[in-house]
Protein kinase domain-containing protein (Populus davidiana), 167 residues
Amino acid sequence: MSCFGCCEEDDIHKTADYGGQYTVKSSAGNLGNYHASETAPKGAQAFKIQPIEVPEISGDELKEVTDNFGTSSFIGEGSYGRVYHGVLKSGQDASIKKLDASKQPDDEFLAQVSMVSRLKHENFVQLLGYCVDGGSRVLIYEFASNGSLHDILHGKPRCVNCPVMKS
Protein backbone atom coordinates (compact mmCIF):
# COMPACT_ATOMS: atom_id res chain seq x y z
CA MET A 1 0.00 0.00 0.00
CA SER A 2 1.29 3.44 -0.88
CA CYS A 3 1.32 6.26 1.68
CA PHE A 4 -1.03 8.05 -0.72
CA GLY A 5 -4.43 6.37 -0.36
CA CYS A 6 -5.48 7.22 -3.91
CA CYS A 7 -2.66 5.25 -5.50
CA GLU A 8 -1.84 1.60 -5.49
CA GLU A 9 1.70 0.51 -4.70
CA ASP A 10 2.03 -0.92 -8.20
CA ASP A 11 1.74 2.61 -9.58
CA ILE A 12 5.12 3.39 -8.02
CA HIS A 13 7.07 0.18 -7.58
CA LYS A 14 8.21 -2.24 -10.25
CA THR A 15 10.46 -5.24 -9.76
CA ALA A 16 13.61 -5.25 -11.86
CA ASP A 17 13.68 -8.83 -13.12
CA TYR A 18 16.17 -8.00 -15.83
CA GLY A 19 18.63 -5.80 -13.94
CA GLY A 20 17.15 -2.61 -15.39
CA GLN A 21 18.17 0.93 -14.56
CA TYR A 22 16.80 2.54 -11.44
CA THR A 23 18.87 5.24 -9.78
CA VAL A 24 17.56 8.78 -10.05
CA LYS A 25 19.92 11.72 -10.41
CA SER A 26 18.77 15.31 -10.48
CA SER A 27 20.10 18.83 -10.41
CA ALA A 28 18.57 21.81 -8.65
CA GLY A 29 16.00 23.69 -10.66
CA ASN A 30 15.21 21.03 -13.22
CA LEU A 31 11.60 20.21 -13.91
CA GLY A 32 11.65 16.47 -13.47
CA ASN A 33 14.43 15.68 -15.91
CA TYR A 34 15.79 12.71 -14.02
CA HIS A 35 18.27 10.29 -15.48
CA ALA A 36 18.83 6.68 -14.45
CA SER A 37 22.53 6.01 -14.23
CA GLU A 38 23.13 2.84 -12.26
CA THR A 39 21.94 -0.69 -12.83
CA ALA A 40 19.79 -2.42 -10.23
CA PRO A 41 21.06 -5.70 -8.87
CA LYS A 42 19.10 -8.67 -10.22
CA GLY A 43 15.89 -9.11 -8.21
CA ALA A 44 16.18 -5.68 -6.55
CA GLN A 45 13.20 -3.38 -6.29
CA ALA A 46 13.22 -0.53 -8.81
CA PHE A 47 11.07 2.55 -9.08
CA LYS A 48 9.28 3.78 -12.13
CA ILE A 49 9.88 7.50 -11.91
CA GLN A 50 7.48 9.63 -13.91
CA PRO A 51 8.50 13.23 -14.58
CA ILE A 52 8.11 15.52 -11.59
CA GLU A 53 5.88 18.38 -12.67
CA VAL A 54 7.08 20.93 -10.11
CA PRO A 55 10.51 22.53 -9.82
CA GLU A 56 13.18 21.56 -7.36
CA ILE A 57 13.76 24.62 -5.16
CA SER A 58 17.17 25.18 -3.64
CA GLY A 59 17.73 24.79 0.08
CA ASP A 60 19.30 28.26 0.12
CA GLU A 61 16.10 29.86 -1.24
CA LEU A 62 14.01 28.02 1.34
CA LYS A 63 16.29 29.13 4.17
CA GLU A 64 16.04 32.70 2.90
CA VAL A 65 12.22 32.79 2.68
CA THR A 66 11.74 31.09 6.08
CA ASP A 67 14.40 33.08 7.95
CA ASN A 68 16.50 29.89 8.18
CA PHE A 69 13.42 27.93 9.30
CA GLY A 70 13.13 30.28 12.26
CA THR A 71 10.34 30.84 14.76
CA SER A 72 9.08 33.97 12.98
CA SER A 73 7.96 31.85 10.00
CA PHE A 74 6.89 28.74 11.95
CA ILE A 75 3.14 28.06 11.55
CA GLY A 76 2.63 24.52 12.83
CA GLU A 77 3.79 20.98 13.28
CA GLY A 78 2.34 17.81 11.85
CA SER A 79 3.05 14.12 12.09
CA TYR A 80 5.83 14.25 9.48
CA GLY A 81 7.53 17.55 10.19
CA ARG A 82 7.33 21.28 10.89
CA VAL A 83 5.54 23.76 8.63
CA TYR A 84 6.73 27.28 7.86
CA HIS A 85 5.29 30.16 5.88
CA GLY A 86 7.31 31.85 3.17
CA VAL A 87 6.92 33.90 0.03
CA LEU A 88 8.78 32.26 -2.84
CA LYS A 89 10.88 34.26 -5.29
CA SER A 90 7.94 33.92 -7.70
CA GLY A 91 5.89 35.98 -5.22
CA GLN A 92 3.63 33.09 -4.26
CA ASP A 93 2.71 32.43 -0.62
CA ALA A 94 3.76 28.93 0.37
CA SER A 95 3.54 26.45 3.20
CA ILE A 96 6.99 24.92 3.48
CA LYS A 97 7.03 21.53 5.19
CA LYS A 98 10.45 20.44 6.42
CA LEU A 99 10.11 16.69 6.84
CA ASP A 100 11.54 14.78 9.79
CA ALA A 101 14.55 12.57 9.11
CA SER A 102 13.66 9.36 7.32
CA LYS A 103 15.45 6.21 6.21
CA GLN A 104 13.36 6.19 3.02
CA PRO A 105 15.68 6.13 -0.02
CA ASP A 106 15.72 9.24 -2.23
CA ASP A 107 14.35 7.33 -5.22
CA GLU A 108 11.25 6.27 -3.23
CA PHE A 109 10.75 9.82 -2.00
CA LEU A 110 11.11 11.23 -5.53
CA ALA A 111 8.63 8.66 -6.89
CA GLN A 112 6.08 9.87 -4.34
CA VAL A 113 6.86 13.53 -5.12
CA SER A 114 6.32 12.73 -8.80
CA MET A 115 2.91 11.25 -8.06
CA VAL A 116 1.80 14.14 -5.84
CA SER A 117 3.06 16.71 -8.37
CA ARG A 118 0.57 15.34 -10.89
CA LEU A 119 -2.46 15.36 -8.55
CA LYS A 120 -4.84 18.12 -9.60
CA HIS A 121 -8.11 18.58 -7.72
CA GLU A 122 -9.99 21.56 -6.35
CA ASN A 123 -9.94 20.02 -2.83
CA PHE A 124 -6.15 19.50 -2.72
CA VAL A 125 -3.59 22.18 -2.04
CA GLN A 126 -1.20 22.20 -4.96
CA LEU A 127 2.40 21.04 -4.59
CA LEU A 128 4.58 23.94 -5.78
CA GLY A 129 8.02 22.41 -5.40
CA TYR A 130 10.33 20.22 -3.39
CA CYS A 131 13.89 20.12 -2.11
CA VAL A 132 16.30 17.27 -1.44
CA ASP A 133 19.38 18.84 0.13
CA GLY A 134 21.68 16.33 1.78
CA GLY A 135 19.61 14.53 4.42
CA SER A 136 16.97 17.27 4.40
CA ARG A 137 13.70 16.87 2.48
CA VAL A 138 11.21 19.68 2.04
CA LEU A 139 7.82 19.88 0.34
CA ILE A 140 6.44 23.26 -0.75
CA TYR A 141 2.66 23.62 -1.05
CA GLU A 142 0.40 26.52 -1.92
CA PHE A 143 -0.50 28.39 1.25
CA ALA A 144 -3.97 27.52 2.56
CA SER A 145 -5.24 30.88 3.79
CA ASN A 146 -8.21 29.30 5.60
CA GLY A 147 -5.93 27.29 7.89
CA SER A 148 -5.43 23.57 8.21
CA LEU A 149 -8.14 20.94 8.02
CA HIS A 150 -7.69 20.51 11.79
CA ASP A 151 -8.40 24.23 12.31
CA ILE A 152 -11.51 24.10 10.14
CA LEU A 153 -12.91 20.96 11.78
CA HIS A 154 -12.13 21.91 15.38
CA GLY A 155 -12.42 25.68 15.18
CA LYS A 156 -9.22 26.33 17.07
CA PRO A 157 -6.25 27.97 15.40
CA ARG A 158 -2.94 26.24 16.03
CA CYS A 159 -0.76 29.25 15.25
CA VAL A 160 -0.81 32.85 16.48
CA ASN A 161 1.80 34.10 13.97
CA CYS A 162 -0.02 32.87 10.84
CA PRO A 163 -0.26 35.52 8.13
CA VAL A 164 -3.79 36.56 7.26
CA MET A 165 -4.62 36.62 3.56
CA LYS A 166 -7.41 38.77 2.18
CA SER A 167 -9.60 37.29 -0.52
Summary: The beta strands are 13-15, 24-25, 35-36, 45-47, 74-77, 81-87, 93-99, 127-133, 136-142. Residues 106-117 form the longest helix (12 residues).
